[in-house]
Structures are given as structure tokens and as C-alpha cells.
Design goal:
about 300 residues, mainly alpha, 11 helices, about 75% helix
Length: about 300
């Protein structure tokens, strides 16, 4: 689930929650200590993202996925407003167009993902969502190896969605909807980044999305009175899956090459499956693990094979 994202290309796939992060030039090799710190930060960011989603799912029985997503949108808006400081009154109609679309996609992406997590589990939902940025990266490629990567990823997805007595097709569909939203989010982020300076566009989109979720949050509170524990879980999900990854990625991209960043981000489905297994007790079979590995390997192969 996106926390920050960089433009997708055949050699790098964006991270997991919404906000464009400028990619600085690669840091010289002499700064090995900072690069090591960047790698450690990436590990922490990935674990924080997936742990936040797992903790948020603990509030589903009281707030439901919709209530948890609403709280997460509020937290994301507060963080991005503090970082981006958008000058909303100065935005033109040409700037507001993609910003509003980005806000709609942002909310739909998180809502579909969290509902999918509720139905099919964290590992499978995040893997299906990851097909979105992977598709964007491979669609722009022209190498034979990228065609092979596409076939591998498709095989993994088909395996994950194979017919079984317990298959939850609506949940699978929501995972694919989250993937489509993430792909759209990447493309919209490019447009917003060209039209709005800095992180102002992302901050404005997150703010609009939070405003749209205000009536949703009110309905959830009226129909399902929250408990302090459930609200705590939802807030923790917002902090761990939005605030921490976003700020961590700002640091990471200053000290780690973009290709290494994209390669590590491809491991998020594995982290999600591990957190789901040991944090939520969501067991996966060998076939499911193999399918997740296929999706991850497809992206890793596309990044590691040198371009000629």
C-alpha cells in the first residue's frame, strides 16, 4: 500500500503509500555508512508499512475496513500538510484537476486494499496490489527479459487466483482494484509533480481525500461506536503505514540508488506475508508462497538485468 512513490520505470518500481518523493542523485560509494543507514531505514520502512496494516486489521471487528481507512486518511493528510505546506488558494484549475483525481484514487486504493486484507489476508492482498506498479514498469519496457518478467508475474497472479473451494473472488477483485488504483496513482503523481511544485500536490490530494472521508467517519462512529482500543489500532495503522514510511523514504532516497530502492520495495509482498503469518496467524500454502515469490522475482529480474 503506497507510503511514498517515485516515478515507475522498467528499472524501478515505486514504494507503497501516496506522496511523490524527489529522487536525488546517487550518493558516492565513499558514503558507505550513510548507504548502510539507508538500507536499514528501508527495512524499517517496509516492516512499518506492513505492520501498520496488520495492526489496522485488528480494528476491523469494531470500525470495519472503511473506518480504519478513514482514520488512516486523516493521519496521512496531517503528515503531508506538515511536510508539503500546500498553498491551496494559489492553485489554478489546471492544477486542481489532477489533484482531485489523485485524491479520489488515493482513497479508493486504500479502501479497496484494506477491504481485500479483511477478506483474503495481508500477504495475498498486498501481492495483488503490487501488480499495479509492476505492470506500469513492464509496460514501458522493450527488452526480452521484461517480456519474461511479465509472463512470470502473470503466472504468479493466476496461481494466486486459482479456483479453490475457499477462494474469495470478491476479495481477489478488490486486490486487483487496488492494483489498478496504484497504477493510476503513479501516472497521476507524474502529472501532479509536473504541474504543482514540491510535495504540495500530494499534500493537497491527501487533504481532499481526508475531507471526503469525514462523512464516512461520522457514519462509522454513529453506526459502530468505536472503542479506545480500536481507535488506537486505527491511528497506529495511519502512523506506521503513512507517516513513518513517507518520512523514511525521504531519508532513504538521499542515500540509496533508485534501483536499489526499487529492488527492495519489490520485497514488500514477502514482508506482508510474513507479518500476516506471524502477526495475524494467516497461514499460506506452499503454492501461494511460490506465487508470491514469482511476482517478487519478476520485478527483481527486471531491475537487476543490465540495460544495453
Amino acid at each position: 500500500m503506497p507510503a511514498a512513490s517515485v516515478p515507475a520505470s522498467p528499472s524501478t518500481v515505486p514504494a507503497a503509500d501516496p506522496a511523490p518523493v524527489p529522487v536525488p542523485a546517487p550518493v558516492p560509494e565513499s558514503r558507505g555508512g550513510r548507504r548502510l543507514a539507508g538500507v536499514a531505514t528501508m527495512v524499517g520502512s517496509g516492516l512499518s508499512n506492513q505492520t501498520g496494516a496488520a495492526i489496522g486489521s485488528l480494528a476491523f471487528p469494531v470500525l470495519g475496513p472503511t473506518g480504519v481507512v478513514a482514520v488512516r486518511q486523516y493521519v496521512a493528510a496531517l503528515v503531508l500538510l506538515a511536510v508539503g505546506r500546500p498553498r491551496l488558494r494559489s492553485f489554478t484549475r489546471r492544477q486542481w484537476g489532477p489533484v482531485l483525481l489523485l485524491a479520489l484514487v488515493f482513497g479508493t486504493m486504500n479502501l479497496s486494499l484494506y477491504t481485500a486484507i479483511d477478506r483474503i489476508g495481508l500477504g495475498l492482498a498486498v501481492t495483488l496490489e503490487f501488480l499495479g506498479p509492476l505492470t506500469i514498469a513492464l509496460a514501458a519496457a522493450r527488452r526480452r527479459v521484461d517480456a519474461c518478467c511479465a509472463v512470470i508475474a502473470a503466472a504468479g497472479a493466476v496461481t494466486l487466483m486459482r479456483p479453490q473451494p475457499s477462494t474469495d473472488y470478491p476479495g481477489m477483485g478488490l486486490g486487483l482494484l487496488a492494483a489498478a488504483c496504484w497504477a493510476s496513482y503513479i501516472l497521476l503523481n507524474r502529472t501532479v509533480g509536473r504541474r504543482v511544485p514540491g510535495a504540495q500536490g500530494a499534500a493537497a490530494a491527501a487533504t481532499v481525500s481526508a475531507v471526503l472521508f469525514l462523512p464516512v467517519g461520522a457514519v462509522v462512529v454513529l453506526r459502530h461506536p468505536p472503542t479506545p482500543q480500536s481507535v488506537g489500532f486505527a491511528v497506529a495503522a495511519g502512523v506506521l503505514s503513512s507517516a513513518v514510511p513517507y518520512l523514511a523514504d525521504l531519508f532513504t532516497l538521499r542515500h540509496v540508488p533508485a534501483a536499489a530502492f526499487g529492488l527492495f520495495m519489490s520485497v514488500n509482498p514477502v514482508l506482508a506475508a510474513l507479518v500476516g503469518r506471524f502477526g495475524l496467524g494467516q497461514d499460506l500454502g506452499l503454492v501461494d508462497w511460490s506465487a508470491i515469490a514469482a511476482v517478487v522475482c519478476a520485478n527483481a529480474l527486471g531491475i537487476l538485468v543490465p540495460r544495453r
